[in-house]
Amino acid sequence: MQLVFERLVLDDPQNHVVSKSKYADQQALADAGETRVVFYLYQCFSRLNKVAAKLEVPDPEHQSASLTIVSQASTCLCHCEIYPGKKIPQQVFYLLQEYHAEGGHQDSLESFLKKCADCIKGRFDAEEEQVSLLEVLSHSFNLLKKKFGKVSIANRELFVLIDILKYFTKSVSMAMALLDFSTPAELVDLRSFQESLLGAPLCVSCLPRKEADPFEFFEKPSQALMNEHAITESNLWLPLKGLAVELHNLFYSLLRLSPETRNRTLTWIGHCITACSERGKLWNNQVSELFMAVQSGDGFALNLGAVLLRLARPFSEPYSPKLLKVQHQYCSFEPKSEQEANASCMHIRGLSKETCLVPREEGAASESPCGPFNFSTECFFACQRILSLGFRVVHERLARLSQDLNRVRRVYEEARSQGGDSSEVTRRLQDNMEKGMTRFLSLKAVLLEPDSLEHMLQFHVACATWLCHLATAERLDAFQPLCLPFPEHGNARLAYVPEFVIENICDCIVFVKRFSEKSLALVGPNLEHLMTLILLFMGSPQRMNNPHLRARMAEMLEVLITSADDDHFSGIIPSMNRERLFRNHPFVAELPSTLLHVFVSIEMTGQSVTFEQKFHYRRPMYIVLDHLWNMPDHRNKMKSLAAEAEANIECSSPPLFLRFINLLINDAIFLLDEALSYMSRLRELQQERQQQQPLGGPLWSQGEANMQHVGMLAHFHNVMGTETIRTLAWLTTEIKSLFCHPTMVDRIATMLNYFLLHLVGPQKKNLKVKDFSEYEFKPQELVQNICRIYTNLGCANSETAQAFCVAVSRDGRSYSPELFPQAQSVLLKIGQSILSIGVGELAEKILVCIGGPERPEPLLLPSCERWAEGPLQEDLQHLSDKCVYDSFVLESSGSSFVGFLSSDQTDPFNRSPLTMEMVTSDNDLKNKILEWRAKRMTN
User: What are the residue boundaries of the Ubiquitin conjugation factor E4 core domain, all occurrences included (predicted)?
Assistant: First the structure.
């Protein structure tokens, strides 16, 4: 021991080396003269192990020498002051850096570190030493942390540093020191976790670590070709995947090492997730992305999600038996103390505040978990939570950034046309576009990393099977086959499952559709489980109360539809898998009614949303309904729903399809009317701008901003209005009698007349703007679809067609004998000659209904002044000045009546829910009106 110590304190040991041979090994001489204390002791330890490995019987002298080396190494690490100028605290890090990649040293390094760590900890626990293992290793930990804070994702040194970090997970004592060092004092501060030793490698990404840091990749994107961006993206995926794999191995080692390290690792992960919770707040996602710095923790949250997805692989298979171990009560439990949290193995806090799929019944007893929560449960919900705070948040920001870029691009093009490329405004806008594109490409690259994306899809498919089992199974100990009607055994359990579980599934599938549709091929036949999830939850408020989330599932359903372009992205076989879902899925017959239920439910009282959200939700539903209509089985199902609605049209509870039709007509009236108004306003603004353009200055800028705002509104209403009219056009090809029912026919006839008049009549010139495509205004398509609705409903030789023709003819506001010839002229111009002939035949039929080309005087004139003995003003239906022959009394009013209750199920006086059971007929008033009408008819 004394000899070893004397050797270690030598200042110039290389001058004291004695060689037995003139031709001694130079490397051996260099090792013998090593000046770095820890390096010298390790080299001795390594040589000793090599000699001992050759012995058949262990030699006590070798064991004694090994203990001496470890003891001296522990002493010098604890008391660096004994060796002044040797810089011993950092030598552990440099030792690992130098030898970790050399062959034959990995096992020796691991053994040397473990024995030294155990020796130091043993002395400290026995109070033989005042220096803890954490203090000894903190110098190396700090060096590692600093290097992680500077290393780039494209730098090979990153993986060297991770290899070094892994050595500290080889023993319980070192791992506990690592976890202690990585746990910040402020457990709610995300930045503290990012700057910790375990958090620093999680921050390495192609995204900046901090808000103000510049982006490293995709600089000057406008100066590079698209294939160059694709190459950069694929070059980033390799190190991103490697980082996730290596960090998964590191955390897996910590979890498997011992119960103590497992608990501390899960605690660290839980605190990280809790610290990330601010990322999911609504206010944090409403800032314009183009002018905002990168959000703190983007790379950190995405990398942590990639690690947890790999930890969840054992149960990321559909119907995996390990999924049965997931305890659904986890998120409802909130420990009151650290002791209770440790006893229940609960490491993620705050989940009890999350909104669940259905509200818990008042007074209902909470389900208690059976014993402490297992690892599968914690890993499942930790993975779901970090995906909600990481991937989903970044995807939403990517979508908003795309919208911002499109908006700025339009302004940039306008500025270029006005001031040229050299103006200050143009240069500033171009600079903003460059920065925005750099951010967009960087965010997209990290989200599209193929390996993590594949793990995520597999995880979500497995989650879909777990949710379906939870919602329907009577017992949870084994998966059971589903059958119709879906069982209701598990609805109460869903009160313990947070909404973010299904939100994550929807978000991932929609993201794949937008940016990587070929990735759906990775799911293959397992897409069936996503369809089952949609059919089970989308149409059932008892299983998923939030109408926004059910509408979001309709958007996910749209992703599963194949289109003509899909083969280009995903090939024939994946497209066949998706198409098969809509034809052969065992429960797909329920899809039309499920979809209609969601369509109607977002309008229901208590579940209403803003009109922009409502139409945003309904647009994918139009696409899915159109797709279903082209399949005979689904078309027949919708026709049967229509027949059922017609048979029960006066039922106290309006049938589903009747409510759907009413909402379609309401939407068409509102959207097209608004769209035409905005187009007319745009024309006025464009004319004003032409007059103000030479003036320039603030007046022109204000007009430009106003025109952009009106243009955005026009674009939105045009898109949705066109979709709604298109839906009515294909729907009326085979469903006719319901639209021609006395309660419906006047509404649809007046609507069609009104819009056709504005599109083909003298007022159509008010809709002409410079560029129809900029605002998605398609007047030709609108005229074509409106005329198709006319011919669908009115051309047949039937009573329903006759009723429709009569309704068209008695519209005194918009109909005239000149209306259809004007429409024919437009149809001929756009090449719709066959449709024009059909419209001409319909026009003749309507003229026959009214007795000739001249309009007869109506029985009841709109003005009450012409009525010598007319009814009171309150007996008129205010919107159309038509006489009402049925009168009603509402619960909340004196004398009033209902127009179309199926269209709006609310009391017009207090907006409370209203059904037919609440409406009382006023027979006296009805008889009075009928007597008056009979008298007028006689006269």
Answer: 198-831
